[in-house]
Design goal:
single chain; 15 helices; Rossmann fold; 6-stranded parallel β-sheet; 15% strand; globular; alpha/beta
């Protein structure tokens, strides 16, 4: 009889990509395994998971709204309904094991799996665990983590240092520099910076780029500027008459491998999944953590790299006055670039998806 695995979580690409990577690894290791995803209605996973070829069930659950008390009034009812639906899903699917990757749906699904005696595994992506995962960790059998020192959040005997699952296609950049530069219409032999705000974009990074456009032209530095679909139209209208030929403005990146391959320096937010990809890519990185995340976990992620001399850190608060200076100084400093890429490459863990998948299968057996 085929083994059955439920994978729950989502909300952002940082949760969804690891979840899909684990599912893909499970199928590589055991092709007859049956996989069902559980997500939150209205969130990104409800589109991305079916697009990856998997079935998903949605729970009507949301996070706490810190700006509006009124919008939180329905939360207890949504939580109760989500728990009841999670119980039905687990029983109907006859799950052998439940995996939580973080995001709204992880909480009710894993809570109910624990109550029903279904073994659970948590994949904690960040260097600072959220409240839900800390609670779920008490009953989880295995907790797969990407950073050292996580025993301050979880029972040490349950921890397994695996790294974060990454999109392998995004980090396979060997020999693709020429192809990558050509795909963006950029020239070989010129220093190139990739600025990426993730799938949603980052206003701070976009503001910095707007202010520094003329300087990139002056210094003859090429830039791939991924601004996010939400910001693209307004930015294009703002810069249409003054966008230098050496700066390419894009809403999103279809081929991350080309963007990573083309770059000499990368400027990015500090989401856990992004950092795992950056370690695998092994390029010099400037991290500008988003302050708009729970428990300020992106700053903690970035500082974990900073402590190992594997990245340059610029705070969101100081970015508008210092980021462009940092970018131009780093891309011109070959010694510093070599040091950063040497140290960040040491942190790469490229087979996390298969290591985690093997742990899931062990729980079943």
């Amino acid at each position: 009889m085929a083994h059955k695995v439920i994978i729950s979580g989502g909300g952002t690409g940082g949760h969804i990509f690891p979840a899909i990577a684990i599912a893909n690894a499970l199928l590589r290791l055991q092709p007859d395994v049956e996989i069902l995803f559980v997500g939150a209605n209205g969130r990104m996973e409800m589109e991305r998971v079916p697009a990856a070829g998997y079935e998903i069930v949605g729970l009507d659950i949301q996070g706490i709204n810190r700006k509006s008390i009124v919008k939180n009034l329905g939360l207890p009812f949504k939580m109760l309904n989500s728990l009841l639906k999670a119980r039905r899903v687990i029983r109907t699917f006859k799950a052998d094991v439940a995996v939580g990757v973080g995001g709204y749906a992880s909480g009710p699904l894993l809570m109910m799996a624990n109550a029903l005696g279904v073994p659970t595994l948590i994949q904690e992506q960040n260097s600072y665990a959220g409240i839900t995962n800390k609670r779920l960790g008490r009953k989880a059998r295995v907790i797969c983590v990407a950073y050292e020192g996580m025993e301050k959040f979880f029972p040490a005997e349950k921890l397994l240092l695996t790294g974060n699952p990454i999109r392998r296609s995004s980090v396979e950049i060997e020999g693709r520099t020429r192809e990558g530069l050509a795909s963006f219409g950029l020239r070989e032999g010129k220093k190139t910076i990739l600025v990426t705000g993730g799938s949603l974009g980052a206003k701070t990074l976009n503001d910095c780029m707007l202010a520094g456009l003329d300087r990139f032209a002056e210094q003859d530095v090429q830039v791939i500027w991924q601004c996010g679909s939400h910001y693209h139209e307004a930015l294009q209208n703002t810069v249409q008459d003054r966008l230098p030929a050496n700066v390419v403005l894009l809403p999103f990146l279809q081929r991350m491998d080309y963007a990573y391959a083309a770059a000499d320096v990368i400027v990015s937010r500090a989401g856990a999944g992004t950092i795992s990809e950056l370690c695998a890519v092994g390029k010099p990185v400037i991290l500008v953590p988003s302050p708009n995340v729970a428990e300020d976990h992106q700053t903690k992620n970035a500082k974990a790299l900073l402590d190992k001399h594997a990245a340059v850190f610029v705070s969101d608060l100081s970015a508008r006055s210092t980021l462009v200076d940092n970018m131009l100084a780093l891309v011109a400093d070959e010694g510093k670039c070599f040091e950063l890429q040497t140290e960040i490459s040491k942190l790469a863990m490229v087979d996390a998806d298969e290591v985690i998948a093997k742990e899931v299968l062990k729980l079943i057996r």
